[in-house]
């Protein structure tokens, strides 16, 4: 691990982002879109879409205050059943990678000292800091990588860390 608070958070976040990719590796679009346990709409592809949405919300809408509609605003936080097509899988991964790149660009501008800067979120009633959001993102990815591990095991028996 790299020393420093920001570097430590980034290491954890990168670890979980990479874990998500590993848990989805070498699966067909049909496998990626396989739902967990009805009535849940959770699938690996839904997790990719959801995490793109989460990256977009916290790093762009909350921290940078970009005026943009939420991505995957499907009433199910991106988990809604998606078509098991290569096009749907490619689109979800492209959206996720784009959001990760934008988030990383924001992180590249931060230092240990700026992580504590408090921002007021778009709704005007909530505040938080870059530190709060990074900890939340690590927690979000950790939880969903656990889901991804269970989904993958159901699909083909592969388990991960």
UniProtKB/TrEMBL annotation:
Highest taxon of the lineage:
Bacteria
Q: Name one Pfam family in it.
A: MST
InterPro entries reported for this sequence? DinB/YfiT-like, MST-like
- The protein's name is DinB family protein
Q: Which organism is it from?
A: Nocardioides humilatus
User: Organism classification, top ranks?
Assistant: Bacteria, Bacillati, Actinomycetota, Actinomycetes, Propionibacteriales
């Amino acid at each position: 691990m790299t020393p420093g608070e920001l570097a430590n958070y980034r290491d954890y976040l990168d670890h979980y982002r990479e874990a998500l990719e590993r848990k989805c590796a070498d699966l067909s679009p049909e496998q990626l879109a396989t739902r967990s346990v009805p009535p849940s709409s959770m699938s690996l592809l839904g997790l990719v879409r959801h995490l793109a949405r989460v990256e977009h919300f916290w790093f762009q809408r909350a921290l940078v205050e970009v005026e943009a509609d939420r991505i995957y605003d499907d009433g199910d936080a991106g988990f809604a059943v998606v078509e098991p097509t290569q096009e749907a899988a490619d689109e979800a991964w492209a959206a996720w990678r784009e959001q990760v790149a934008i988030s990383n660009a924001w992180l590249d501008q931060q230092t240990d000292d700026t992580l504590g800067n408090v921002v007021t979120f778009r709704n005007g009633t909530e505040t938080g800091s870059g530190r709060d959001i990074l900890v939340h993102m690590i927690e979000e990815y950790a939880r969903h990588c656990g889901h991804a591990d269970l989904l993958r095991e159901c699909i083909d028996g592969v388990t991960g860390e």
